[in-house]
Design goal:
GO terms for molecular function: calcium ion binding. Keywords: Calcium, Signal. It holds the Pfam family TSP_3. The chain has 294 residues and is mainly beta. It has three domains: 66 residues, no CATH class; 38 residues, no CATH class; 143 residues, Immunoglobulin-like (Sandwich), CATH 2.60.40. The strands form three sheets. Strands 5, 6, 8, 9, 10 and 11 form a six-stranded antiparallel beta sheet that branches. The chain has a three-stranded antiparallel beta sheet with strand order 3-4-7, with no helix packed on it. The longest helix has 15 residues. The radius of gyration is 31 Å and the shape is elongated.
């Protein structure tokens, strides 16, 4: 009878006691009833009891381990929708619209210059122009030693579609020339192969520059912009508007303004008979100013 009792005790010990993994003596394997995921953390202490996470990482300290937490950083935006899933940013701001939030972005304005080296980290200025040498880029300097012009252009890449070759660009329109308007109607012959159309530029980050992402055709063409309410529909034909406004001054036509304007910006302005417009020359992958005020 005694050997029956001894066998029962040994069997119970094998079932309930932790066992050692022969391949890794330092790893303790708890009984499956007390450690469902086999990560050597008892269920009652495991912040992800059904998914192995021996390190028990918990970024937002909400007692749900990162591997089973639908919102790792605790900013109330689910991981699969969060543009910074590992850094709390409930506002989800994304200045350069590259789907990486500003909070975890090294180059917020997307101009190819990291923020810690960028003299205008919140406004794209790939050339880093600094006319007065004060360390603040002309694009965001209230007193750059010259006046910012009406247009700045950033080339983003190229695309071929529907038999057409496009240069992808972000156009920045200065709101100071349209009375500080938050939105502008933009017309241009290079905006689409269908002819001049209306597009909407918006100052989404309230920095005084209205942005428009555009796919531009190769060629030379006028661009005009004018204040509009933010509900203007895009895609409407504006051929008449382009040519009517072709030589209409928008605040940058006077000689005094042109003389004070930063040279790189002035190069986009074409003037005739005292009236001025904006002019672009687009080749596949490149955009150059086509003004006569260099």
């Amino acid at each position: 009878m005694k050997w029956y009792i001894l066998a029962a005790i040994l069997l119970a010990a094998l079932v309930t006691a932790p066992a050692c993994d022969d391949n890794n003596p330092n790893r303790c394997e708890l009984n499956i009833n007390s450690d469902w995921d086999g990560d050597c953390v008892p269920n009652n202490e495991d912040n992800c009891p059904e998914l192995a996470n021996p390190g028990q990482e918990d970024l937002d300290s909400d007692d749900f381990g990162d591997v089973c937490d639908g919102d790792i950083d605790g900013d109330h935006v689910f991981n699969d929708e969060d543009n910074c899933p590992n850094l709390a940013n409930p506002d989800q701001k994304d200045l350069n619209r590259n789907h990486v939030g500003d909070a975890c972005e090294d180059d917020r304005d997307g101009d190819g210059v990291n923020d810690d080296e960028d003299n205008c980290p919140s406004l794209s200025n790939r050339d880093q122009g600094d006319a007065d040498g004060d360390g603040l880029g002309d694009a965001c300097d209230d007193d750059p030693g010259c006046t910012s012009g009406p247009l700045r252009v950033e080339v983003l890449g190229t695309e071929e579609a529907d038999g057409h070759r496009y240069t992808l660009a972000r156009l920045f329109f200065n709101s100071r020339y349209i009375s500080g308007a938050h939105c502008a109607e933009v017309c241009g012959t290079v905006l689409t192969w269908e002819g001049p159309v209306t597009a909407l530029a918006v100052d989404a980050d309230s920095d005084g520059w209205l942005e428009l992402d555009a796919a531009l055709l190769s060629g030379v063409g006028p661009i005009v912009y004018r204040a509009a309410d933010c509900s203007v529909s895009t895609g409407e034909n504006c051929a008449e508007a382009v040519y009517i406004a072709d030589y209409s001054p928008q605040g940058y036509g006077s000689q005094d303004v042109l003389e004070d304007m930063c040279p790189d910006d002035r190069a986009y302005i074409y003037c005739r008979d005292g009236e001025c417009r904006l002019a672009l020359s687009v080749e596949f992958g490149t955009i150059e100013p086509d003004g006569n005020q260099r």
